[in-house]
Amino acid sequence: MKDRKVLRSFVMISQIGITMLVPIFLCTAIGVWLNRQFDNVYLFLLMLLIGIGAAFRSLFILTKSFYEKDMKREHEQTAYLEGLKTYRQKHPDEDFSDVMEGKKKRYPEHKNPHF
C-alpha cells in the first residue's frame, strides 16, 4: 500500500511538470514564430502570458481531480464527527468512549424510535 502511494506521488509530480511545461513552451514557440512573421514583440509577450495562464489552469484542474477523493473522505469524516457531537449533546448520559476511539463506526441506537 505504501509503495502505491509513493508511485502515485511520483506520477503526480511528473504530470505536474509536463502540465506546466507543455503549454508554456508551445505558446512561447508560437509567440516567437508570430514575432518573426509580424515583427511585433507584443505578440510574443501575449502568447507567453496565455501559455502561463493555460499552465496554471491545467495545474488547478489536475490537482483538484487528484485530491478530490481525499477531500470527499475528509468531508464525510467531518460530517460524521459533527453528527456524533450533535448526538452526544442530545444524549449526555450515554457512554461514548468506544465510538470516539474508533471501535464502533455507527451511531448508538436509540431507545425511543420516534426521536
Shape summary: elongated
Q: Profile the largest sheet.
A: none
> Uncertain runs with pLDDT below 50, 5 residues or more?
none
Rg, Cα atoms, Å: 26 Å
Figure out the total of helices: 3
| Proportion of residues in β-strands | under 5%
> How confident overall, as mean pLDDT?
82
Series of secondary-structure elements, N-terminal to C-terminal = HHH
- Percent helix: over 70%
Q: Structural class of the secondary elements?
A: mainly alpha
Q: How would you describe this protein?
A:
- Helix 1 (2-38) packs antiparallel against helix 2.
- This protein has 115 residues and is mainly α.
- The protein has helices at residues 2-38, 41-90, 97-100.
- It is elongated and about 80 Å long.
SSE map:
Layout: H1 2-38, H2 41-90, H3 97-100
In short:
79% of the residues lie in helices and 0% in strands.
Q: Key terms for this structure?
A:
0% strand, 79% helix, single chain, mainly alpha, 115 residues
